[in-house]
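note to self — DONT lose this again. spent like an hour looking for the file last time. sequence + predicted structure for the chain T wanted, 309 res
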Amino acid sequence: MTDYPLSPQLSAFVAKTLGFNSPDSTINGLRIGYSEMCQAFTPVRPANVSIREQLIDQVPIRQYRPTSAAPANGWPSVLYLHGGGWVVGDLDSHDFITAELASRLNVVIIAVDYRLAPEQPFPAAFDDCLTVWRGLQADAATWQLDPRRMAIAGDSAGGNLAAAVCLALRDAGQAQPRLQALIYPGLGGDERLPSRTECADAPLLSTSDVHCYHALYLPGTVKPSAYAMPLLATDLRGLAPAFIAVAQFDPLRDDGVQYSERLEAAGVAVDFHPGHGLVHGCLRARGLAPEVDLLYTKLLAALHRSLDL
């Protein structure tokens, strides 16, 4: 096992997280263990946010809406796509960040309960996320949203989906989000990227874990495309400005690094956060480790700027 020099605070977070590993290695067992772990890191929701669950074209969503009066032109908003390797996670698993973003930014956050693999492999999750984005844009007035001030964000597999939605919108000639915020995203990087080897047994996500999730999301019968793995895209011009944060000790680190470099080369503005000392999945350590709080500060600042808050 490689020695990863984590801070004492982040080491304690990793140890607590690993304490929830389920002895049941079935998909259902993994989901139950993941949900229990997530619940342990989910604080009480802020008082200034109201919650409502609905469907957009049959896709379940949860909206986090400030309790204050809506602006005249409608609320700025962020579509948030949860992580979990396309296999685990749901509306509750990322309540810790969606409620926080709505409260801190005073914007509407829409979380998507997209279909999960392996029961529903690619393109199910991607289709659901794209459907919700387009539904919000088409019915912005009904939702009391400002269609010109919408961003998209996601962590891990959610970062993959957020990047893929931007590619699909660009290819269809539709308006881009104000920002694509990708937090330690898995983007289909080459197996020879240095982080795959350097962080092969990193805490909370190993290279073998990455392979397993990819195999479930993209079974052999499915042909990979840029909408499944955005680093396969040959042209990154015309995409939304990006905030990309990676984790230093993460086999997916260089996916984000490479995407940042390619976006910049294509003329896309990129705000890159190198995530020194971070591990994959560390968003749950908000308030527990200063290096994670720094990530939140950077993310909130990027969303604040892009949405003209």
